[in-house]
Specification:
mainly alpha; Rossmann fold; three-stranded parallel β-sheet; about 50% helix; binds tryptophanyl-5'AMP
Length: about 350
Amino acid sequence: MARMSATETPQAAPRILSGMQPTSDSLHLGNYLGALVNWVKLQDEFDAYYFVADLHALTVPTDPAVLRDRTRKTAAQFIAGGVDPERSALFCQSHVTEHAELGWVMNCLTGFGEASRMTQFKDKTAKGQNANVGLFTYPMLMAADILMYDAAYVPVGEDQRQHLEITRDLAERFNTRFGEGGLVVPEPYIVKGSAKIQDLQDPTSKMSKTGSSPKGLIDLMQDPAKIAKNIRSAVTDTEAEVRYDVENKPGVSNLLVIHSVLSGTRIEELERAFAGRGYGDLKKEVADVVVDALTPFQKRMAELLDDPAELDRILASGADRARVVAQATMARVRDLVGLVPAAR
Ligand code: TYM
C-alpha cells in the first residue's frame, strides 16, 4: 500500500501539527512561550497544521455559548501571536470530522490498563474531578489528531510528553498490526527551558489556569498594569544573585527564561547584565519585556475579534486544507484495518 495516493499533492516540506484547548478566554504565558512561539518559528520551515481542540474541551462540561466564544478567541490568539493562516492551516478540530473517526480506531488499539496509566487522567480524577469517558480516552483522540497529518514533529510543552509517547506507541502498533507505511511515527518538539514555564507564586509547579493563585499566572489578554504587578510580586529566593539554576533558584530561573525567549537574549548574557544588581531590577525588566510583547498582541486581538466573519472564513479555509489530508489518511486507514469501502 503506497503511503500517498496519486491524487494527493506531493508534500513540499515535512509536516508539523499542534493544538490547544479552548478552555479559557485567554491563553497564558506558558501556552505562549512553551508552544505558540515555536509554532510561529516552525511555520517557515514546515508544512504546518494548527488547530483549536474543541472536541477535547468537551471533556470538561462548559456552557455551549462560552465554548463557542472561547474557540474563536483561541483561534484569534494563534493569529495575534504570529500564526499566518496563509502559510499554516489553521482550523477547528470539530470541522474535520475524521479526527473523531480515527480517534475510535485508536481507542480500539489501546489497552484499558495502558489508558489508565496516563498521568493527566490519574491527576484529574485524584483531585476529585468528576471524570467522563471522554477524559479517559482523551489521549487516543490526541493521537488521532497527530497521526492524521503524518506529522514529523509536534511542538508542545513538557506536560504533553506522555501524550506524545502513547501516540508513538499507537503508530508503531498500528504499523506492526496492519503493515509498515501505515502511519508516521512523530517526534516531540519540546524546547528545553521554555517547555515548562512555572507559576510565579509557586515556581516549582507549572503555570496553569488551575494553579496556586491568580497572581501566579500571566494571561495574554490581561491588563498590562496587572501583568507588571504580578511579575513584580513573583516569588524568588533569599539570595540576591541573578543566576540560572532551576533546582536551587526556580523563581529566578523562570524569570530569566521568560526574559530570554521574549527578548531573544541568551540566558548567560542576562546573567552577566544583571551581575551585582538585585531581583527588583530583574523583575522590572521582565515586566517591561512581557508588556512590550503583549501590547501589539492585544491590539491585534481587538482587530480580529472585531471581525468574527473574517475569523470564521479563515477557520473554514484552514479546515478545507486539513480535510484534504485527513480524508486521504482515513481512506488509507479504513482500507488497512479492513473496513469495506462504501459503494459510490
Ligand atoms: P493545552 O491546551 O493544555 O496547552 C497548549 C500548549 O501549551 C503548553 N503549555 C505549556 N508550556 C510551557 N509551560 C507551561 N506552563 C505550559 N502550560 C501549557 C502545552 O504543553 C501545549 O503545547 N492536549 C493538548 C491539546 C492537544 C494537542 C493535540 C496538542 C489536543 N490534540 C495534538 C498537540 C497535538 C492540551 O491540552 O494542550
